Amino acid sequence: MSTVEITINKKTVRVPENITIMAAAKLNGISLPSLCHHPDQKVKANCRVCAVEVEGSKNLVASCSTMVSEGMKITTNSPRVRETVRTIVELILADHPQECLTCIRSGECELRQLAFKLGMKEVQGVKTVKRLPLDLSTPSLVRDPNKCIKCGRCAEVCHHVQEVGILYSHNRGLDIGVTPEYGKELKDVACVLCGQCVLACPVGAIYEKDDTDKVWEALGNPDKHVVVQVAPSVRVSIAEEFDQPSGSIATSKLVSALRLLGFDRVFDTDFAADLTIMEEGHELLQRLQTGGVLPLITSCSPGWIKYIEHFYPELLPHVSSCKSPQQMFGAMAKSYYAQISGIDPKDIFVVSVMPCTAKKYEAARPEMKDSGYRDVDAVLTTRELGRMFKHEGIDFNSLEDGEFDSPLGISTGAAAIFGVTGGVMEAALRTVYEVVTGQTLEKLEFTGVRGMAGVKASSVNLGGTEVKVAVAHGLAHAKQIMEAIAAGEADYTFIEVMCCPGGCIGGGGQPYGTTNAVREKRIQGLYEVDQKAELRKSHENPAIQKLYEDYLQAPLSPVSHKLLHTTYTNRCQHELQ
Amino acid sequence: MQAVVQEIVGQMGNEKAPLLQVLLAVQDASPRNYVSEEAVRAIARSMRVSRCRVYSTASFYTEISLKPRGRHLIRICGNAPCENAGRAAIMDAIQKELGIKAGEITADGLISLEKVSCLGACYKSPAIKVDHQIYGNLTPEEAVAIIRSLREEFSNEHNGSPVGI
Ligand code: SF4
Ligand code: SF4
Ligand code: SF4
Ligand code: FES
Ligand code: FES
């Protein structure tokens, strides 16, 4: 690696070439202020709070966008730099609602932290700006344009990672706003409610619609039997809310903390993930045997489902009719579980804890009530659950280990990896292989579908026939595969799509600070959960076997079809055609 | 609309054409001299970019209007050189002749009047711009004559029927 010699604050150091001043300063122990900069995004350089002095340059330069060069002399601590940066931040604050005390982002707001770090005491020239209305139009997200600092981080992720193209900066000068076109509400555009913009936003300008009150209310209602399910990826992210390293496995503490909140039963979405594999695996086999529509595409990611409904409705017959694990769980809780526990399903309140904002939307889809009751009553994101724990003063890190309740809390390692890109595919292959060949699968790891590559293609030998499979995560990559299918150029049999980069572990409901580096840590965490699990194949889950024996009869049986399968809606507004 | 836009985009070299050029051409082709929401959608489809990218560019450039305007657009410069050279008298004469104020459209939809800052024609102030044409060193009488000829031209073409949307 070539290096260059530069001077930072009179100290001469060698740093790699082709890095920014900001990165070079970081390597030398100085974190420069930043707002529009995001480690996974391309440089925008519009906020200017990262200004530094470079000898020979008349104006201050933006350290996030300026590359180091041989002999460069950089000053980050001069009175001029300090004065300029404080003035820039003051201008932002003068336009900003002074609402930190009640702001959802308060604890983790990059702007508030910056103001604090710079010791801003008084803000000159606070403007009484016109209050713009909040966008409360969807079950998943809230946009507060008043708090938007127009950094463009949401637009970047929405256009380049997801390629959905909903948020962008409009108008000019003082009227700039980062919104959908014509300032439309999110319900009126093709937003998939993935919440990646929430993770990208440095402030409280886009956030999840908070459902904690609904859950508090249910927990406080003696007539309700309140059960909770937790998604696979929450166990490797919730501890981050309590300052543990990214990817820490916190399954047992999570269970204990949920009991402390007062849930009557603590169950696991992993149980329903095993169930999904049984249904979806058999759907794949059925389509193979009867000449059904192929490739089959997975359906567990509600942002992905909304995307294909908007953008590629003609490909909907490819999508598995299986409900997602969240919805399968809800349907089972209000039918099978109601029956075995003798509780009237109308009194059962199902809460799910999800890494995902789109799950709120999925739970609210009108068709999701096949048992006669709404499958899932309230959906909390990982962040909301973290807030509830904090609200109750739960000292998460020092809790004793707890265990999920039976039977809807029993699961396998195959279910755990549902939370990572490639995981549903791998779990399905483990089961399909054994069902088709009747032989025991020796090597459980399908490494060809693992990893952070955007599109992963692989092939598997299923008892003599080679089956081609593909995995995509992040909608820009899903779009590549959809274009290939539409053009007749994709000869895959089975495709897994997850809406968010890295899969659910990188979902829009995960703790703030979800960068790609953090995603990799959480992925390792879930693979470790799988590695250490006693059972690692969905069809070996004894609770699932019993569920089929006692209630569902067989995968794809009429009861299964009624409760566990669903239909889709063409939502195309001709975005692409 | 889709067909019109498709043709414009096609003429400009398909998906590679600069968005602003496409917007200007679509605006020119519109009888009301603006880019409608339907046109924004059509451009997005033809160029395979998101609707809000199209809207973003359209809303950034003052040359593009997202609201219907008159078929003809009269822009009057409001900056100091023109002000000193007698802009007020010109403005008065034009407003009186049209029966509207700056920022409005005549009832027949023929003419929009806008006040802008600097037309880049300071050397012949006071200046106005009618569509793409600059008229400089104007007297109020000349300004009125320009408007009358626009009206005459239109009624010769259309027998006096109002301008469509
Ligand atoms: S977004 Fe940040 S700075 Fe703004 S009110 Fe919320 S916490 Fe305070
Ligand atoms: S939720 Fe997803 S699709 Fe919607 S605006 Fe945010 S990033 Fe874009
Ligand atoms: S909503 Fe957030 S990410 Fe988007 S521009 Fe505003 S402050 Fe930046
Ligand atoms: S962080 Fe450098 S300009 Fe915004
Ligand atoms: S000031 Fe009027 S044209 Fe420039």
Please supply descriptive tags for the structure shown above.
heterodimer; A: 577 residues; alpha/beta; Ubiquitin-like (UB roll); Alpha-Beta Plaits; Rossmann fold; 3 domains; 4-stranded parallel sheet; B: 165 residues; alpha+beta; Glutaredoxin; 47% helix; 11% strand; binds iron/sulfur cluster; binds FE2/S2 (inorganic) cluster
- As a whole number of angstroms, the C-alpha radius of gyration of chain A is 25 Å
**Computed structural class of chain A:** alpha/beta
Topology, number of strands of chain A: 17
The second-level CATH architecture of the largest domain in chain A is 3-Layer(aba) Sandwich
Oligomer: heterodimer
Number of domains of chain A: 3
What is the helix content of chain A? 25-40%
CATH superfamily of the largest domain in chain B: Glutaredoxin
β content of chain B, as a range? 5-15%
CATH-defined fold name of the largest domain in chain B: Glutaredoxin
Give the chain pair forming the largest contact, with residue counts.
A-B, 19 and 16 residues
Main sheet strand line-up of chain B: 2-1-3-4
Summarize the structure.
The complex is a heterodimer of chains A (577) and B (165). Chain A is an alpha/beta fold and 577 residues long. Chain A is built from 18 helices and 17 strands.
